[in-house]
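ZP: hey, is the flavin-adenine dinucleotide complex queued? I don't see it on the tracker
AM: it wasn't, my bad. submitting now with these inputs:
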Amino acid sequence: MKNIVVVGAGLSGAVIARLFAEKGFSVKVVEKRDTIAGNTYDYIDENGIRIQKYGPHIFHTNNKQVFEFLSQYTEWEKYEHRVLGNINGKLVPVPFNLTSLKETHSKEDAEKIEEILLKEIGFGKKVPILQLKQHSEPLIREFAEFVYQNVFYTYTKKQWGFKPEELGSEVMNRVPVYVSTEDRYFTDEYQYQPTDGFTTMVQNILNHPNISVELGVDALQHVTFEQNKIAYDNDTNIDLIFTGRLDELLNYAFEPLPYRSLNFVFETHNTDSYQPAAVVNYTTSEDFTRISEFTKFCCKPTDKTVIVKEYSKQCEEGDIPYYPIPKQEYQSQYEKYLNEANKFDNLYLLGRLANYKYINMDIAVDLAIKLFEKIINN
Ligand SMILES: Cc1cc2nc3c(=O)[nH]c(=O)nc-3n(C[C@H](O)[C@H](O)[C@H](O)COP(=O)(O)OP(=O)(O)OC[C@H]3O[C@@H](n4cnc5c(N)ncnc54)[C@H](O)[C@@H]3O)c2cc1C
Protein backbone atom coordinates (compact mmCIF):
# COMPACT_ATOMS: atom_id res chain seq x y z
CA MET A 1 0.00 0.00 0.00
CA LYS A 2 1.33 3.43 -0.94
CA ASN A 3 1.35 6.11 1.71
CA ILE A 4 -0.77 9.18 1.08
CA VAL A 5 0.45 12.74 1.47
CA VAL A 6 -2.25 15.42 1.50
CA VAL A 7 -1.12 19.02 1.10
CA GLY A 8 -3.60 21.35 2.83
CA ALA A 9 -5.80 20.70 5.88
CA GLY A 10 -8.82 22.56 4.46
CA LEU A 11 -12.12 20.82 3.94
CA SER A 12 -11.00 19.17 0.68
CA GLY A 13 -7.79 17.79 2.19
CA ALA A 14 -9.45 16.67 5.42
CA VAL A 15 -12.24 14.76 3.66
CA ILE A 16 -9.96 12.83 1.31
CA ALA A 17 -7.50 12.13 4.15
CA ARG A 18 -10.32 10.59 6.18
CA LEU A 19 -11.54 8.43 3.31
CA PHE A 20 -8.05 6.99 2.74
CA ALA A 21 -7.52 6.50 6.47
CA GLU A 22 -10.76 4.54 6.74
CA LYS A 23 -9.41 2.19 4.05
CA GLY A 24 -6.29 1.49 6.11
CA PHE A 25 -3.87 3.85 4.34
CA SER A 26 -1.37 5.83 6.36
CA VAL A 27 -2.04 9.51 5.63
CA LYS A 28 0.16 12.51 6.32
CA VAL A 29 -1.59 15.89 6.11
CA VAL A 30 0.73 18.87 5.76
CA GLU A 31 -0.62 22.37 6.35
CA LYS A 32 1.35 25.59 6.09
CA ARG A 33 -0.92 27.59 8.38
CA ASP A 34 -0.88 26.99 12.14
CA THR A 35 -4.53 26.00 12.00
CA ILE A 36 -6.63 23.34 10.31
CA ALA A 37 -9.84 23.86 8.32
CA GLY A 38 -8.42 26.18 5.63
CA ASN A 39 -10.71 29.11 4.94
CA THR A 40 -13.51 27.63 7.00
CA TYR A 41 -11.42 28.14 10.17
CA ASP A 42 -13.43 29.64 13.04
CA TYR A 43 -12.84 30.24 16.74
CA ILE A 44 -14.64 31.61 19.80
CA ASP A 45 -13.50 35.11 20.84
CA GLU A 46 -13.23 36.58 24.34
CA ASN A 47 -16.95 37.48 24.30
CA GLY A 48 -18.06 33.95 23.42
CA ILE A 49 -18.80 34.88 19.81
CA ARG A 50 -17.79 32.48 17.03
CA ILE A 51 -15.67 34.35 14.50
CA GLN A 52 -14.96 33.04 11.02
CA LYS A 53 -11.46 34.34 10.46
CA TYR A 54 -11.51 34.07 6.67
CA GLY A 55 -14.98 35.47 6.11
CA PRO A 56 -18.53 34.25 6.62
CA HIS A 57 -19.18 30.62 5.64
CA ILE A 58 -22.70 29.30 5.27
CA PHE A 59 -23.28 25.64 4.56
CA HIS A 60 -26.02 24.79 2.07
CA THR A 61 -26.48 21.89 -0.32
CA ASN A 62 -28.90 19.74 -2.23
CA ASN A 63 -26.43 16.85 -2.13
CA LYS A 64 -27.70 14.29 0.38
CA GLN A 65 -24.50 12.22 0.24
CA VAL A 66 -22.41 15.26 1.19
CA PHE A 67 -24.78 16.21 3.99
CA GLU A 68 -24.78 12.68 5.39
CA PHE A 69 -21.00 12.43 5.12
CA LEU A 70 -20.48 15.63 7.14
CA SER A 71 -23.22 14.68 9.61
CA GLN A 72 -20.90 11.94 10.91
CA TYR A 73 -18.61 14.68 12.22
CA THR A 74 -20.94 17.40 13.43
CA GLU A 75 -24.33 18.20 14.88
CA TRP A 76 -26.14 20.92 12.99
CA GLU A 77 -28.18 24.00 13.76
CA LYS A 78 -30.86 25.02 11.32
CA TYR A 79 -29.88 28.29 9.69
CA GLU A 80 -31.42 29.98 6.67
CA HIS A 81 -29.33 32.76 5.28
CA ARG A 82 -30.86 36.14 4.47
CA VAL A 83 -29.04 39.05 2.88
CA LEU A 84 -30.01 42.67 2.45
CA GLY A 85 -28.66 44.95 -0.23
CA ASN A 86 -27.91 48.55 0.66
CA ILE A 87 -29.12 50.40 -2.44
CA ASN A 88 -28.38 54.10 -2.00
CA GLY A 89 -29.05 53.81 1.74
CA LYS A 90 -32.20 51.69 1.46
CA LEU A 91 -32.03 48.08 2.72
CA VAL A 92 -33.86 45.61 0.49
CA PRO A 93 -33.84 41.80 0.17
CA VAL A 94 -31.17 40.27 -2.07
CA PRO A 95 -31.66 38.31 -4.32
CA PHE A 96 -33.93 41.07 -5.59
CA ASN A 97 -37.57 40.02 -5.14
CA LEU A 98 -41.06 41.53 -5.26
CA THR A 99 -40.51 43.11 -1.83
CA SER A 100 -37.32 44.76 -3.10
CA LEU A 101 -39.28 46.00 -6.10
CA LYS A 102 -41.85 47.72 -3.87
CA GLU A 103 -39.17 49.28 -1.70
CA THR A 104 -37.21 50.79 -4.58
CA HIS A 105 -40.03 51.97 -6.89
CA SER A 106 -43.10 54.15 -6.57
CA LYS A 107 -46.31 52.25 -5.77
CA GLU A 108 -47.63 52.80 -9.27
CA ASP A 109 -44.42 51.68 -11.06
CA ALA A 110 -43.98 48.67 -8.76
CA GLU A 111 -47.53 47.51 -9.50
CA LYS A 112 -47.01 47.81 -13.27
CA ILE A 113 -43.72 45.91 -13.16
CA GLU A 114 -45.08 43.23 -10.84
CA GLU A 115 -48.08 42.69 -13.10
CA ILE A 116 -45.96 42.20 -16.18
CA LEU A 117 -43.46 39.95 -14.35
CA LEU A 118 -46.31 37.74 -13.14
CA LYS A 119 -47.81 37.59 -16.62
CA GLU A 120 -44.59 37.04 -18.58
CA ILE A 121 -42.49 35.04 -16.12
CA GLY A 122 -44.89 33.66 -13.53
CA PHE A 123 -45.07 33.78 -9.73
CA GLY A 124 -42.43 31.76 -7.87
CA LYS A 125 -39.91 31.73 -10.75
CA LYS A 126 -36.21 32.39 -10.26
CA VAL A 127 -34.76 34.08 -13.36
CA PRO A 128 -31.13 34.93 -14.15
CA ILE A 129 -30.69 38.68 -14.54
CA LEU A 130 -29.17 38.31 -18.03
CA GLN A 131 -32.32 36.57 -19.23
CA LEU A 132 -34.43 39.48 -17.94
CA LYS A 133 -32.13 41.98 -19.61
CA GLN A 134 -32.87 40.34 -22.95
CA HIS A 135 -36.63 39.99 -22.49
CA SER A 136 -38.92 41.08 -25.34
CA GLU A 137 -41.03 43.34 -23.03
CA PRO A 138 -39.42 46.81 -22.74
CA LEU A 139 -40.69 47.30 -19.18
CA ILE A 140 -39.05 44.05 -18.04
CA ARG A 141 -35.81 45.08 -19.76
CA GLU A 142 -35.96 48.48 -18.02
CA PHE A 143 -36.57 46.80 -14.67
CA ALA A 144 -33.70 44.36 -15.30
CA GLU A 145 -31.39 47.27 -16.10
CA PHE A 146 -32.34 48.89 -12.77
CA VAL A 147 -31.52 45.69 -10.87
CA TYR A 148 -28.33 45.17 -12.87
CA GLN A 149 -27.04 48.70 -12.14
CA ASN A 150 -28.13 48.86 -8.51
CA VAL A 151 -27.47 45.33 -7.31
CA PHE A 152 -24.75 43.83 -9.52
CA TYR A 153 -22.69 46.36 -11.41
CA THR A 154 -20.84 48.25 -8.66
CA TYR A 155 -20.72 45.20 -6.39
CA THR A 156 -19.17 43.06 -9.13
CA LYS A 157 -16.60 45.74 -9.96
CA LYS A 158 -15.65 45.98 -6.29
CA GLN A 159 -15.53 42.20 -5.88
CA TRP A 160 -13.59 41.25 -9.01
CA GLY A 161 -11.94 44.44 -10.22
CA PHE A 162 -13.71 43.90 -13.56
CA LYS A 163 -17.01 45.01 -15.03
CA PRO A 164 -19.58 42.19 -15.14
CA GLU A 165 -19.38 41.96 -18.94
CA GLU A 166 -15.61 41.36 -18.75
CA LEU A 167 -16.11 38.23 -16.64
CA GLY A 168 -17.27 34.77 -17.61
CA SER A 169 -21.03 34.64 -18.24
CA GLU A 170 -21.39 32.08 -15.43
CA VAL A 171 -20.92 34.92 -12.91
CA MET A 172 -24.07 36.75 -14.04
CA ASN A 173 -25.96 33.58 -14.84
CA ARG A 174 -25.66 32.59 -11.20
CA VAL A 175 -27.44 35.77 -10.06
CA PRO A 176 -31.21 35.41 -9.95
CA VAL A 177 -34.21 37.70 -9.50
CA TYR A 178 -37.09 36.10 -7.58
CA VAL A 179 -40.58 36.71 -8.94
CA SER A 180 -41.95 36.08 -5.44
CA THR A 181 -41.37 37.26 -1.90
CA GLU A 182 -38.80 34.49 -1.26
CA ASP A 183 -36.13 36.20 0.81
CA ARG A 184 -33.78 33.33 1.59
CA TYR A 185 -30.40 33.70 -0.07
CA PHE A 186 -30.26 29.97 -0.79
CA THR A 187 -33.14 27.64 -1.53
CA ASP A 188 -31.19 24.38 -1.04
CA GLU A 189 -32.74 21.51 0.86
CA TYR A 190 -30.04 21.31 3.53
CA GLN A 191 -29.20 24.64 5.14
CA TYR A 192 -27.41 24.29 8.47
CA GLN A 193 -24.42 25.57 10.40
CA PRO A 194 -22.25 23.09 12.36
CA THR A 195 -23.24 23.45 16.02
CA ASP A 196 -19.65 23.65 17.27
CA GLY A 197 -18.29 25.41 14.21
CA PHE A 198 -16.39 24.35 11.10
CA THR A 199 -13.01 23.92 12.81
CA THR A 200 -14.44 21.35 15.24
CA MET A 201 -16.09 19.55 12.32
CA VAL A 202 -12.80 19.40 10.38
CA GLN A 203 -10.96 18.37 13.57
CA ASN A 204 -13.38 15.46 13.92
CA ILE A 205 -12.85 14.49 10.28
CA LEU A 206 -9.08 14.44 10.78
CA ASN A 207 -9.29 12.58 14.09
CA HIS A 208 -8.31 9.07 12.96
CA PRO A 209 -5.36 6.89 14.07
CA ASN A 210 -4.13 6.58 10.46
CA ILE A 211 -3.93 10.36 9.99
CA SER A 212 -1.03 12.53 11.16
CA VAL A 213 -1.30 16.30 10.77
CA GLU A 214 1.71 18.61 10.55
CA LEU A 215 0.90 22.29 10.97
CA GLY A 216 3.12 25.21 10.02
CA VAL A 217 4.86 23.20 7.28
CA ASP A 218 5.12 24.44 3.71
CA ALA A 219 4.93 21.26 1.65
CA LEU A 220 6.80 22.91 -1.20
CA GLN A 221 9.97 22.72 0.90
CA HIS A 222 9.64 18.91 0.83
CA VAL A 223 8.43 18.29 -2.69
CA THR A 224 10.76 17.36 -5.56
CA PHE A 225 10.06 16.19 -9.10
CA GLU A 226 11.58 13.06 -10.58
CA GLN A 227 10.69 12.43 -14.24
CA ASN A 228 7.05 11.36 -14.11
CA LYS A 229 6.84 11.17 -10.31
CA ILE A 230 6.49 13.68 -7.55
CA ALA A 231 8.41 12.94 -4.35
CA TYR A 232 7.77 14.01 -0.78
CA ASP A 233 10.92 13.91 1.37
CA ASN A 234 12.49 12.00 -1.55
CA ASP A 235 9.88 9.26 -1.35
CA THR A 236 8.19 8.61 -4.70
CA ASN A 237 6.22 5.61 -3.46
CA ILE A 238 3.35 7.87 -2.44
CA ASP A 239 0.23 9.42 -3.88
CA LEU A 240 0.33 13.17 -3.38
CA ILE A 241 -2.97 15.01 -3.14
CA PHE A 242 -2.39 18.70 -3.56
CA THR A 243 -4.93 21.36 -2.53
CA GLY A 244 -2.69 24.45 -2.81
CA ARG A 245 -1.93 26.75 -5.76
CA LEU A 246 -0.90 24.81 -8.84
CA ASP A 247 1.24 27.64 -10.26
CA GLU A 248 3.18 27.74 -7.00
CA LEU A 249 3.69 23.96 -7.00
CA LEU A 250 5.04 24.13 -10.55
CA ASN A 251 7.36 26.96 -9.66
CA TYR A 252 5.54 29.52 -11.84
CA ALA A 253 6.59 27.78 -15.04
CA PHE A 254 4.11 30.07 -16.84
CA GLU A 255 2.45 33.39 -15.92
CA PRO A 256 1.21 33.35 -12.28
CA LEU A 257 -2.53 32.70 -12.02
CA PRO A 258 -4.39 35.81 -10.86
CA TYR A 259 -6.52 35.70 -7.72
CA ARG A 260 -8.61 38.16 -5.73
CA SER A 261 -7.65 38.60 -2.13
CA LEU A 262 -9.56 40.18 0.75
CA ASN A 263 -8.79 42.49 3.64
CA PHE A 264 -11.04 41.71 6.58
CA VAL A 265 -11.67 44.52 9.06
CA PHE A 266 -13.24 43.22 12.27
CA GLU A 267 -15.06 45.47 14.73
CA THR A 268 -16.60 44.65 18.13
CA HIS A 269 -19.61 46.77 19.09
CA ASN A 270 -21.33 47.19 22.46
CA THR A 271 -24.77 46.29 21.22
CA ASP A 272 -26.63 43.03 20.68
CA SER A 273 -27.40 43.89 17.05
CA TYR A 274 -25.50 45.99 14.53
CA GLN A 275 -27.61 45.50 11.41
CA PRO A 276 -30.96 43.86 10.59
CA ALA A 277 -29.52 40.88 8.66
CA ALA A 278 -26.51 38.56 8.96
CA VAL A 279 -25.06 40.09 5.80
CA VAL A 280 -25.62 43.47 4.18
CA ASN A 281 -24.19 43.88 0.67
CA TYR A 282 -23.17 47.42 -0.26
CA THR A 283 -24.22 47.38 -3.87
CA THR A 284 -24.02 51.08 -4.79
CA SER A 285 -21.66 52.73 -2.31
CA GLU A 286 -18.64 52.22 0.02
CA ASP A 287 -15.28 50.64 -0.76
CA PHE A 288 -16.07 47.40 1.06
CA THR A 289 -18.38 44.83 -0.53
CA ARG A 290 -20.33 43.67 2.49
CA ILE A 291 -20.68 43.67 6.27
CA SER A 292 -21.30 40.35 8.02
CA GLU A 293 -22.41 40.07 11.63
CA PHE A 294 -21.29 36.83 13.25
CA THR A 295 -23.80 36.81 16.11
CA LYS A 296 -26.56 36.45 13.52
CA PHE A 297 -25.17 33.20 12.06
CA CYS A 298 -25.28 30.87 14.96
CA CYS A 299 -24.19 32.19 18.30
CA LYS A 300 -26.15 32.70 21.44
CA PRO A 301 -27.11 36.34 22.02
CA THR A 302 -24.64 38.46 23.97
CA ASP A 303 -24.55 42.16 24.78
CA LYS A 304 -21.75 42.57 22.23
CA THR A 305 -21.56 41.87 18.54
CA VAL A 306 -18.76 41.44 16.02
CA ILE A 307 -18.91 42.53 12.42
CA VAL A 308 -16.48 42.19 9.54
CA LYS A 309 -16.12 44.46 6.53
CA GLU A 310 -14.66 42.87 3.39
CA TYR A 311 -12.41 44.84 1.08
CA SER A 312 -11.63 42.99 -2.13
CA LYS A 313 -8.26 43.52 -3.80
CA GLN A 314 -5.89 42.06 -6.34
CA CYS A 315 -3.86 39.25 -4.79
CA GLU A 316 -0.24 40.30 -4.47
CA GLU A 317 2.79 38.57 -3.00
CA GLY A 318 2.11 37.71 0.63
CA ASP A 319 -1.69 37.99 0.28
CA ILE A 320 -4.01 35.01 0.67
CA PRO A 321 -5.42 33.88 -2.69
CA TYR A 322 -9.15 33.66 -1.96
CA TYR A 323 -10.92 33.72 -5.30
CA PRO A 324 -9.75 32.45 -8.69
CA ILE A 325 -10.93 35.06 -11.22
CA PRO A 326 -13.60 33.68 -13.57
CA LYS A 327 -12.19 34.89 -16.90
CA GLN A 328 -11.61 32.71 -19.96
CA GLU A 329 -8.04 33.90 -20.51
CA TYR A 330 -7.06 32.84 -16.99
CA GLN A 331 -8.71 29.47 -17.51
CA SER A 332 -6.50 28.94 -20.58
CA GLN A 333 -3.48 29.94 -18.51
CA TYR A 334 -4.51 27.39 -15.86
CA GLU A 335 -4.76 24.68 -18.51
CA LYS A 336 -1.07 25.12 -19.34
CA TYR A 337 -0.27 24.32 -15.72
CA LEU A 338 -2.69 21.43 -15.78
CA ASN A 339 -0.95 19.85 -18.80
CA GLU A 340 2.32 20.10 -16.93
CA ALA A 341 0.82 18.57 -13.77
CA ASN A 342 -0.60 15.65 -15.76
CA LYS A 343 2.98 14.48 -16.45
CA PHE A 344 3.26 13.26 -12.86
CA ASP A 345 1.32 10.07 -12.36
CA ASN A 346 1.21 10.15 -8.56
CA LEU A 347 -0.01 13.77 -8.34
CA TYR A 348 -3.72 14.54 -7.83
CA LEU A 349 -5.19 18.03 -7.75
CA LEU A 350 -8.08 18.80 -5.43
CA GLY A 351 -9.93 21.81 -4.06
CA ARG A 352 -10.53 25.40 -5.07
CA LEU A 353 -6.88 26.47 -5.41
CA ALA A 354 -5.48 23.45 -7.26
CA ASN A 355 -8.50 23.34 -9.60
CA TYR A 356 -8.51 27.14 -10.01
CA LYS A 357 -12.23 27.19 -9.54
CA TYR A 358 -14.53 28.84 -7.00
CA ILE A 359 -16.25 26.00 -5.20
CA ASN A 360 -18.61 25.99 -2.27
CA MET A 361 -18.01 23.69 0.68
CA ASP A 362 -20.48 21.07 -0.49
CA ILE A 363 -18.78 20.85 -3.89
CA ALA A 364 -15.39 20.62 -2.16
CA VAL A 365 -16.62 17.60 -0.19
CA ASP A 366 -18.24 16.03 -3.24
CA LEU A 367 -15.07 16.42 -5.33
CA ALA A 368 -12.97 14.91 -2.53
CA ILE A 369 -15.26 11.86 -2.37
CA LYS A 370 -15.16 11.50 -6.18
CA LEU A 371 -11.38 11.82 -6.39
CA PHE A 372 -10.94 9.23 -3.64
CA GLU A 373 -13.21 6.80 -5.51
CA LYS A 374 -11.31 7.41 -8.75
CA ILE A 375 -7.91 6.75 -7.15
CA ILE A 376 -9.05 3.71 -5.20
CA ASN A 377 -10.72 2.12 -8.25
CA ASN A 378 -7.71 2.70 -10.49
C1 LIG B 1 -14.44 34.64 1.77
C2 LIG B 1 -14.99 33.29 1.43
C3 LIG B 1 -16.30 32.99 1.78
C4 LIG B 1 -16.83 31.74 1.47
N1 LIG B 1 -18.11 31.47 1.83
C5 LIG B 1 -18.63 30.27 1.58
C6 LIG B 1 -19.96 29.96 1.96
O1 LIG B 1 -20.67 30.80 2.53
N2 LIG B 1 -20.44 28.73 1.69
C7 LIG B 1 -19.69 27.78 1.05
O2 LIG B 1 -20.18 26.66 0.84
N3 LIG B 1 -18.40 28.04 0.68
C8 LIG B 1 -17.87 29.24 0.93
N4 LIG B 1 -16.57 29.51 0.56
C9 LIG B 1 -15.79 28.45 -0.11
C10 LIG B 1 -15.07 27.54 0.91
O3 LIG B 1 -14.15 28.28 1.66
C11 LIG B 1 -14.36 26.44 0.11
O4 LIG B 1 -15.25 25.70 -0.63
C12 LIG B 1 -13.64 25.46 0.99
O5 LIG B 1 -12.89 26.11 1.98
C13 LIG B 1 -12.72 24.64 0.09
O6 LIG B 1 -11.73 24.09 0.83
P1 LIG B 1 -10.32 23.73 0.22
O7 LIG B 1 -9.78 22.74 1.15
O8 LIG B 1 -10.41 23.37 -1.21
O9 LIG B 1 -9.48 25.10 0.24
P2 LIG B 1 -8.86 25.91 1.45
O10 LIG B 1 -9.85 26.11 2.53
O11 LIG B 1 -8.24 27.12 0.86
O12 LIG B 1 -7.70 24.97 2.00
C14 LIG B 1 -6.45 24.80 1.34
C15 LIG B 1 -5.40 24.68 2.41
O13 LIG B 1 -4.15 24.33 1.79
C16 LIG B 1 -3.12 24.99 2.49
N5 LIG B 1 -1.94 25.06 1.63
C17 LIG B 1 -1.82 25.69 0.44
N6 LIG B 1 -0.57 25.55 -0.05
C18 LIG B 1 0.11 24.80 0.86
C19 LIG B 1 1.43 24.34 0.92
N7 LIG B 1 2.35 24.63 -0.03
N8 LIG B 1 1.84 23.59 1.99
C20 LIG B 1 0.94 23.31 2.98
N9 LIG B 1 -0.35 23.74 2.97
C21 LIG B 1 -0.75 24.48 1.92
C22 LIG B 1 -3.72 26.35 2.77
O14 LIG B 1 -3.03 26.99 3.82
C23 LIG B 1 -5.15 26.00 3.14
O15 LIG B 1 -5.32 25.80 4.52
C24 LIG B 1 -16.03 30.76 0.81
C25 LIG B 1 -14.71 31.08 0.45
C26 LIG B 1 -14.20 32.32 0.75
C27 LIG B 1 -12.79 32.63 0.34
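AM: back. The longest strand covers residues 259-269.
ZP: great, adding it to the tracker
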